[in-house]
Amino acid sequence: MCVTALYAVAERVGANRIMKAGGxxxxxxxxxxxxxxxxxxWRRRMAEAALKVLMKKVEKPTVFTPEExxxx
Length: 72
Hints:
By secondary structure, the chain is an alpha/beta fold. The protein has helices at 7-12, 36-55, 66-70, and strands spanning 2-4, 17-20, 62-64. β1 (2-4), α1 (7-12) and β2 (17-20) form a beta-alpha-beta unit.
Protein backbone atom coordinates (compact mmCIF):
# COMPACT_ATOMS: atom_id res chain seq x y z
CA MET A 1 0.00 0.00 0.00
CA CYS A 2 1.19 3.46 -0.82
CA VAL A 3 0.03 6.86 0.44
CA THR A 4 1.40 9.49 -1.90
CA ALA A 5 0.82 12.75 -3.72
CA LEU A 6 2.50 11.09 -6.72
CA TYR A 7 -0.18 8.47 -7.26
CA ALA A 8 0.48 8.20 -11.01
CA VAL A 9 4.05 7.10 -10.28
CA ALA A 10 2.80 4.55 -7.75
CA GLU A 11 0.44 3.15 -10.42
CA ARG A 12 3.26 2.86 -12.93
CA VAL A 13 5.50 0.93 -10.56
CA GLY A 14 2.69 -1.50 -9.74
CA ALA A 15 1.53 -0.58 -6.23
CA ASN A 16 -1.78 -2.38 -5.70
CA ARG A 17 -3.44 -0.09 -3.20
CA ILE A 18 -2.75 3.61 -3.60
CA MET A 19 -4.26 6.37 -1.51
CA LYS A 20 -3.95 9.94 -2.67
CA ALA A 21 -2.23 11.89 0.05
CA GLY A 22 -4.37 14.35 1.89
CA GLY A 23 -1.44 16.73 2.27
CA UNK A 24 1.26 18.10 0.04
CA UNK A 25 4.12 16.22 -1.59
CA UNK A 26 6.54 16.96 1.24
CA UNK A 27 4.21 15.90 4.04
CA UNK A 28 1.45 13.53 2.84
CA UNK A 29 0.25 12.90 6.40
CA UNK A 30 0.41 16.50 7.54
CA UNK A 31 -1.32 19.80 6.96
CA UNK A 32 0.66 22.80 8.16
CA UNK A 33 -2.25 25.13 7.45
CA UNK A 34 -4.20 23.72 10.41
CA UNK A 35 -3.82 24.39 14.11
CA UNK A 36 -2.04 21.68 16.10
CA UNK A 37 -5.26 20.15 17.45
CA UNK A 38 -6.99 20.26 14.07
CA UNK A 39 -3.98 18.67 12.39
CA UNK A 40 -3.94 15.81 14.91
CA UNK A 41 -7.61 15.11 14.08
CA TRP A 42 -6.87 15.42 10.36
CA ARG A 43 -3.96 12.96 10.61
CA ARG A 44 -6.13 10.48 12.45
CA ARG A 45 -8.72 10.62 9.67
CA MET A 46 -5.98 10.01 7.08
CA ALA A 47 -4.76 7.00 9.08
CA GLU A 48 -8.34 5.67 9.29
CA ALA A 49 -8.68 6.04 5.53
CA ALA A 50 -5.37 4.21 4.99
CA LEU A 51 -6.59 1.32 7.16
CA LYS A 52 -9.73 1.08 5.03
CA VAL A 53 -7.54 0.85 1.93
CA LEU A 54 -5.79 -2.15 3.44
CA MET A 55 -9.13 -3.88 3.92
CA LYS A 56 -10.19 -3.42 0.28
CA LYS A 57 -9.79 -6.33 -2.10
CA VAL A 58 -8.19 -5.23 -5.37
CA GLU A 59 -7.25 -7.04 -8.58
CA LYS A 60 -5.04 -4.35 -10.11
CA PRO A 61 -3.50 -1.03 -9.08
CA THR A 62 -6.36 0.97 -7.59
CA VAL A 63 -6.30 4.61 -6.50
CA PHE A 64 -8.42 5.68 -3.54
CA THR A 65 -9.11 9.13 -2.10
CA PRO A 66 -9.47 9.75 1.63
CA GLU A 67 -12.83 11.44 1.03
CA GLU A 68 -14.40 8.44 -0.70
CA UNK A 69 -13.13 6.07 2.00
CA UNK A 70 -14.36 8.15 4.91
CA UNK A 71 -17.87 8.61 3.52
CA UNK A 72 -18.52 4.87 3.16
